[in-house]
Amino acid sequence: MDQGDGLAVKFLDSNRFVTISKASLSVSPDAPSLDARPPHLKDVKPKLRSATASTRPLPARRQNVAAGRFSIPKDVAEMDILVDGGSVHLTNLQKIFWPSLGLTKRDLLQYYLDVSRWILPHLKDRAMVMKRYPNGINGPFFFMKRAPEPRPQSVSICSIEHASGNIIGFPVVQDLASLLWLVNLGCIDLNPWYARCDDVYRPDFLHFDLDPVKGTSFRKVLETALIVRDALAALKIACYPKTTGSRGIHVYVPIVRGPLQKQVWAFAKKFSRELAKRNPKVITAEYRVAKRPAGRVLVDYNQNAWNRTLASVYSVRPKPAATVSTPVTWEEVERGVRLEDFTMRNVPARLDKLGDLWKPLLAERGRVDLKSLL
Question: What letter does residue 31 receive in the DSSP assignment?
Fold first, then answer.
C-alpha cells in the first residue's frame, strides 16, 4: 500500500502501522489554509510524515475506518498516532472521564479526531488558554496559559505581553497533531482568544454570552437570544447562535478587524444595557451577581474584554451529559432546543449531515464594520 499521502498509527505493543487517508481528516478545501503562520507565532513548521515501512495489517477491529474516520482502539492504554503536523503520543486512553456515561479519555480524543476538519479553522492562529481535567469531569481542574515543555514541534507559540510585563507563550492549535496534543493534556473544552496572534488587540468577533440567572429557565434564554437577534437585525447586523453546552447561548457577530478589543467591549456594553432597559422583565446587564434580579437572563458584555475567552464552537463541555457547544439555526432556536440535544455522541453525525453552520464566521465577506457604530 502506498502510504505517501496517508496518516500512520503505531501501537506501542507492536511495530504495526495502520494507515488511513490524509484527505479524510483534512480541512475542507474551502476552509482557510492551515499553513499560514502570523508573525507573532514562534513557528516550527509541522511536517506530515508517512510510514516508510509496514508489516502485516492490524486485525480488522483496529482498522475501523467508518465514514472516513480512523477509530482509536479501545483496548490500548497508550499509542502513537502520526497525523497532519507530526506524531502525537496519546496516554491514559482507558481513564474514565465521564463516570455516569462510561466515557473515557479515548472517547474524548476520538470526538476531536472526528470533528477536526470542522473545528480546526475556528482555532487557527489563536492563542489557547488551557483548562485541564487530568482525571475527568469529577476531578480537580486547573488553568494554564503558558505552553508546557517539552512539547511536540507541531505546537506553535503565540507570545503575548501582559500588563504586568510578563510575556506568556500560549499554545496555538494549527493542525491535527497540536489539537490532539492539547486534548491529551486533559483539555476537555477549548478556549481560544477572540483576536488572532498577528494582532491580539483587534478581535474579529463581537459576541454576547446569554447566561441565565439562577432559577431561570432555558426557555427564557432562547427568548433572549431572539431579542438579541432582532435588535442586531435592526442595525443590519447578522449574527449566529450556538449553545454553550453549559448553561446558555452564545451569539456571535463576525466583524472587520480594526476596532480595539476595548472598543468592541464598549459597544457590547452599550448594546446590552439598552436591551435590558427595553426588556426589563427578561434581560439584565447587571454584572454584580448579588444585584441581578431573579428570573432574568444576563446578556454578558464583559466577556468581550481583552484576555477573556469562551468555549469554542464544537467544544465538549465538562458536564455530566458530555454536551457540546454547537451551532444552531435561528429556526431551531425559535422551535426550541435543549442543551442536552447536542453531545459528544451525536454532534459528529450532525456535522456530517449539516456541515459547519458557522462557516460565515470564517469568511472574509459579510463581516460587520463596527467603526460607524462606535
Answer: S
Residue entry with cell 454553550:
244
Question: In this structure, what C-alpha cell is assigned to residue 69?
Answer: 474516520
Question: For the chain, first and last CA: distance in Å?
Answer: 59
Mapping DSSP onto H, E and C, the string for 64-114 reads CEECCEECCCCCCCCEEEEECCEEEEECCCCCEEECCCCEEHHHHHHHHHH
Residues 109 and 348: their CA atoms lie apart, in Å, by 13
Distance CA 268, CA 361 (A): 18
DSSP state of 255: B
pTM listed for this prediction: 0.83
Cell numbers at residue 128, please?
Answer: 489557547
Q: Are 268 and 298 in contact (CB under 8 A)?
A: no
Which tens digit of pLDDT belongs to each residue from 103-137? 999 999 999 999 999 999 999 999 999 999 999 99
What domains lie within the chain, and their CATH numbers?
6-192 (no CATH), 205-373 (3.90.920.10)
Q: What is the pLDDT of residues 20-35, one digit of tens each?
A: 333 334 333 333 333 3
